Amino acid sequence: MIRPILRHWVLLDLDVLRLWLTDTRVRYAEIIDNHDGSWGLAFDLRWLEPEAFVACSETMRIALEQGIDAVPPLPTAPPRILRPAPSLQDLVARHGGYDRITSEAWAHFHSETKRWMEDVRLDRAEVIPPTKATKDDAA
Amino acid sequence: MSFDSNFRWQMQYVPKVTAILGELPNRLFTQTRVAPRERDIKYNTDVMILPYGGKDVALRLRRPGKGYFARYGLQFTIRSKLDSGAETELAKLRRGLGDWFFYGHIEEGWEP
């Protein structure tokens, strides 16, 4: 489910900020029209001295140190669960040893592996989570 | 968006902000930390103030929007002009309102 998330934040010391704002050299980055009868000034956090920061989130720390593009994006869709590829380990175990695998079993294994690779390529290998399957079945 | 709806929108995130403040080291606070009751939260025209652990925390959250994080993720904004002519957030902060300024970005993402 897509939800609002608060992971990117900063806590500033207003005493330090007040001093900073009285500095006539301070410039704002842009004027923001909030479309509600109010306007704001936008400032760049990188312009502040370190003592202005009481605390910040991990994503803010990354952004301040490495730039905003370095912050990992939030997932916008559930992680996909793919059907596992045929297991060579299981094949060996089923036949009691690598040398004891029959040619028919090899042929089946290769065929299944090829089919799995084709399903992945064609985006058909996703496993539907049980909760969604149950919901869909109920509908 | 009116100030009332802005207030209601920000109010929904107060528990989350309080939880974040609750994880900060004790030495930052001057009093025992108690989450603010709704009636303790002040909203004076355009500034929401949360009293927490002996600190008055001015709260501002930025709304989510396409491309906003990349464009505004390293900014903070202060309201500087009101059509009504009322005293602005900038003026209030300059004359001493609040001890800390919590500025957060609301994003939208997938969560199970």
Descriptive notes:
- The complex is a heterodimer of chains A (139) and B (112).
- Chain A contains 5 helices and 4 strands; from the N terminus they run βαβββαααα.
- With 139 residues, chain A is α+β, with helices and mostly antiparallel strands.
- In chain A, the strands form 2 sheets. Chain A has a two-stranded antiparallel ribbon with strand order 1-4.
- The radius of gyration of chain A is 28 Å and the shape is elongated.
- With 112 residues, chain B is α+β, with helices and mostly antiparallel strands.
- Chain B has one domain (3-104).
- In chain B, 26% of the residues lie in helices and 32% in strands.
- In chain B, strand 1 and strand 2 form a beta hairpin.
- The interface between A and B is large, with 48 and 53 residues.
List the helices and strands and how they pair.
The complex is a heterodimer of chains A (about 140) and B (about 110).
Chain A: E1 2-13, H1 14-22, E2 30-33, E3 38-44, E4 53-56, H2 58-66, H3 88-95, H4 103-121, H5 130-138
Antiparallel strand pairs in A: 1-4, 2-3
Chain B: H1 3-11, H2 14-22, E1 42-44, E2 47-52, E3 55-62, H3 68-72, E4 75-82, H4 89-94, E5 100-110
Parallel strand pairs in B: 3-5
Antiparallel strand pairs in B: 1-2, 2-3
Name its key features.
heterodimer, A: 139 residues, alpha+beta, 4 strands, B: 112 residues, 4-stranded mixed β-sheet, 4 helices, 5 strands, globular
Tell me the structural class of chain B. alpha+beta
Radius of gyration of chain A: 28 Å
Q: Report the biggest beta sheet of chain A as strand number plus sense, adding barrel if it closes.
A: 2 strands, antiparallel
Which assembly state applies to the chains in this document? heterodimer
Number of helices of chain B: 4
Terminal CA distance of chain A: 19 Å
Helical run tally of chain A: 5
Helix content of chain A: 25-40%
